[in-house]
Write a structure and sequence with these properties.
This protein is about 50% helix and about 0% strand. By secondary structure, it is an all-alpha fold. The protein has one domain. Helix 2 packs across helix 3 and helix 2 crosses helix 4.
Length: about 100
Amino acid sequence: MADGPSCEAAPLATPTHEETAKQVFGGWDVMSPEEWAARYSHTVGCSSFDQYRYRDAELQAWIYELHAILGDPARVRACREKFLTPEQIADLGEYEF
């Protein structure tokens, strides 16, 4: 995920793709990429949203940071430890692959 093209080289997302990104990453506008990763990274098998540029600069920065986190298991663990209780972390163990 973190191996995507640089922002400048990425193709511009269509408006529909941008709206889809906002839906897929629900809460992006109220939750940091770190918190989203802590709570939902176990639901992401793969993602190509970091392969595009976005008209919404905040969304773009958020998506690129999220993908950097998702590409680093140590960062995902650190996010979980920051935002989740030990019980919540233990519950996620059954979803790890």
